[in-house]
Each structure stands twice: as C-alpha cells, then as structure tokens.
Amino acid sequence: MQNAGIWGIGSFTEGREVTNFDLEKTLDTSDEWIRTRTGIERRVFAEDDVDTSDMSYYAAVDALKEAELDASELDLILVATVTPDYPFPSVSSLLQERLGAPKAAAMDISAACAGFIYGLATAEQFIKTGMYKHVLVIGAEKLSKVTDMDDRNTAVLFGDGAGAAVVGPVDEGKGFLSFELGSDGEGAMHIRQDPQLIMNGREVFKFAVRQMGESSINVVEKAGLTKDDVDFLVPHQANIRIMEAARERLELPKDKMAATVHKYGNTSSSSIPIAMVEELKNGKIKEGDLIVMVGFGSGLVWGATAMRWGR
Ligand code: COA
Questions:
Q1: Atom 24, ligand 1: which residue's CA is nearest?
Q2: 261 with 150: CB under 8 angstroms?
Q3: Inter-CA distances, 173 with 4, 26, 217, 227, 270, Å
Q4: Neighbours of 287 (CB within 10 A)
Q5: Beta strands in the chain (DSSP E)
Q6: 75-93 burial, b for 16+ CB within 10 Å, e for fewer?
Q7: What residues are in contact with ligand 1 under a 6 Å CB criterion?
Q8: Rounded to whole angstroms, how far apart are CA atoms 212 and 207?
Q9: C-alpha pair distances (Å), 262 with each of 112, 156, 308
Q10: 61 CA to centre of ligand 1 in angstroms
C-alpha cells in the first residue's frame, strides 16, 4: 500500500484581535480567570465579510504553494468544519471552484474539533488504495458566528481560523504511521449548537484529559513505537491544562509541544494545522521527527495520528 503524508501546510489567522481585557468590559470575567483556567490571552474573530470558505481559501493557497502543486492536480477536497458558510453547498464545493480544481471531488466533514484528524485519515485511505493522489484537507471555523457573547462559560474560549494540508504519496517509512478515530455519543449533548454554542465545560474537561492521553499513547503503540520515540506533540488547542495533561502522559518536555492557544483560543478543527504551521516556522518540527497529533471535540469525538515528518 502507498504511504501518505503531508506535502505542504498553510494557515490563516487574520482578523480582529479580541483580548481578555476586551472581554472584561462586557462579561463578568477577568483576564486572570481566563489565563489561569485556559491559558488563553487573546483570540481572533474574522471580519464580517470573511466567512469559513474565505479563510479556507487563503490557507489552501499557502499549502498548495508549499507543496508545489497546482490546484488543477487535486483529486479531492475535504473541509472539516462545523461552521460552514451555508448548510449546503459545502465549503469544499465553494473552494473547488475558487481554487480552480476542476477534477477534484468535494465534501465537508463534521467531526468538530477532531475534524482535521478525521480529514487526514480519510485522505490517507484514498491515497493508500491508489484511488487518488492529491487530497487537500482543511480545518476551518468561524466560531464567532455561533458563540453567545453574553455567555461567559463559552465566549472566552473560542476563536476563528483555518489550516490546510496537501496530502499525497510519500516514501516508505514517512508520513502517517497510524491513526485512531473514535466517538462516544453518550456525551453528545455536552457541546452542542442549539441555536448557539452551549457547553458543559466540566464534563468535556474530564473526557478530554482522559482521551487525549490515551489516544496519543494508542497511536504510538499502533505504529510499533514507544513514547520515547516521540519528538513532538501537536494537540488540539482547547485549554493549556488539557494539553499539558496529554504532554505529561507522553513524558515529553514542555518545549516539545505545540502551544498557540494563548494567541488564538480554541479554533476547533483549524487549531492543529495552525499550530503545526507556527511550530514549523519556529523550527521546532524537523524532517524525520515523529509527531503525534491529537484532537477531541463535540460528539463526543476524538482522533489521533502518529506521523514521521517529511515526504
Ligand atoms: N470567567 C469567570 N468565571 C467563570 C467563567 C469566566 N469566563 N466561566 C465559568 N466561570 C465560573 C463558573 O461559573 C464556575 O462558577 P461556580 O463555581 O460559581 O459555579 C467557576 O468559574 C468554576 O467553573 P469550573 O467549571 O469548575 O472551572 P474549570 O476550572 O473547569 O474551567 C473551563 C472551566 C470551561 C475552562 C474548563 O472546564 C474547560 O476547559 N473545559 C473544556 C472545554 C473545552 O475544551 N471545550 C471545547 C471542546 S473542543
């Protein structure tokens, strides 16, 4: 079977900066509470005329450039989002036209904050079997559309953004080594949109701490490796305390984990690729590194992968 991996990656994090101090003016909250309980210092809300497909487009252009691939070569576009521009058509179809990818099939994936990992796993199946060669996987959210800015339990947590990866065939031993995807519908109501975002934070916290650690270990073992082999962890950026619990489970030092939650808050499906882009720029992820990406979210769902960076 053909190995699959990431050829290029890009992100979009522009918009209106909202600091904790800005939120203090309208909510019964404080910078101190938000920072100590979540690690978040600021978040970015997309401008009014920028929707999920626009953010996806900008992230995709950067990923295609890095991959040195023309959009016309794409076979499939997968957009993981819970905040599409419209219920239908899909964000992927809007992008297919805008990017100029006439031969690409297009579909959106709904797996909340684990959506990017679900997208990567889906892309891998098509490449492994030889059905497709080039798959564009995007995580993009405009959560500011569905966040109740009067609810301090949720308003302080979320932000907008997009991340994109071009997935294609890679050499033996590189790319995705293992995946784990899962769901526990019993907790489905703990984070829901009805009509705005509602969350039982304590329950989600307990689930996340347990699942992030377990899935991280599981994908490493599935790849036939041990936690000593892991070079870098890229967790879903929801809350620094949840992220730290996963890092400690892998017994990694502090500087071996991607952390951008202080800058962007929880950007759901886009948080993992956004964090990847930043840590690649910082030189923290290098060719040949064993990387674990792990996410969780509304569903409840989770997803993780162990991958060897490089093509
Ligand atoms: N500012 C000030 N106080 C706040 C607050 C805010 N923004 N939000 C909640 N509080 C209050 C609560 O009302 C509660 O008050 P009470 O004790 O009088 O009822 C108190 O802070 C403590 O709440 P608790 O739930 O124990 O805090 P916590 O340490 O668990 O932190 C979360 C709350 C939401 C940060 C945390 O539970 C969490 O991160 N959960 C996971 C959420 C998540 O990741 N969601 C996205 C999934 S993809």
A1: 202
A2: no
A3: 10, 52, 19, 18, 27
A4: 9
A5: 4-12, 16-19, 42-45, 76-80, 105-109, 135-142, 160-169, 175-183, 191-193, 197-199, 232-235, 290-297, 301-308
A6: bbbbbbbbbbbeeeebbbb
A7: 29, 33-34, 37-38, 113, 152-153, 156, 191, 199, 201-202, 204-205, 208, 238-239, 266, 297
A8: 8
A9: 20, 12, 27
A10: 37
Residue 205 tokens read as 């916290």
Q: Read off φ and ψ for residue 44, nearest 5 degrees.
A: -120, 130
Q: Per-residue pLDDT tens for 110-124?
A: 999 999 999 999 999
Structure tokens at 12: 């979009």
Question: pTM higher than 0.90, yes or no?
Answer: yes
pLDDT tens digits, 266-291? 999 999 999 999 999 999 999 999 99
CA distances to 36, 131, 133 from 294, in Å: 23, 26, 24
Could you give the residue numbers annotated as active site?
113, 236, 266
DSSP one-letter string for 81-125: -SS-SSSSS-HHHHHHHHHT-TT-EEEEE--GGGHHHHHHHHHHH
pLDDT of residue 137: 98
Cα→Cα distances 289→173, 309, 311, Å? 12, 5, 12
Compute the C-alpha angle 184/188/192, nearest 5°. 145
First to last CA, the chain: 16
Q: How distant, in Å, are the alpha carbons of 12, 108, 110, 181 from that of 55?
A: 6, 15, 17, 26
Cβ–Cβ under 8 Å, residues 109 and 78: yes
Q: Distance (Å, rounded) from C-alpha 307 to C-alpha 310?
A: 9
Question: Which tokens belong to 132?
Answer: 């497709």
Q: pLDDT tens, 288-305?
A: 999 999 999 999 999 999
Domains present along the chain, CATH in parentheses? 4-169 (3.40.47.10), 175-308 (3.40.47.10)
